[in-house]
TrEMBL record:
Keyword terms of this UniProt record: DNA-binding
The protein, known as: DNA-binding helix-turn-helix protein
Domain HTH cro/C1-type: 15-74
MF annotations from Gene Ontology: DNA binding
Coiled coil: none
Bilayer-spanning residue ranges: none
Top-level taxonomy: Bacteria, Bacillati, Bacillota, Clostridia, Eubacteriales
Amino acid sequence: MEQKIKQDIPLGKNIRSIRKQKKLTQMDVVRELELAGLGTTRSSYAKIEAGIQHIYASELIAIAEILDVPLTELFRSNPTD
């Protein structure tokens, strides 16, 4: 049985905010996800940032590594500005 996580933290918004702070485009992140073996389209990634698509734990870990932040930073109520 697949387990789903109900979001009570704006995870996608946090990812988008941190990505922009790092001056990366969505395509930059998608390219790195592909290099990590996680086939993700820009459209799917955009949906993750919009909070309308589920995210796998492996994607979440990879995104934290790509953004060069601790995983916990993605779960903050107000990510570092």
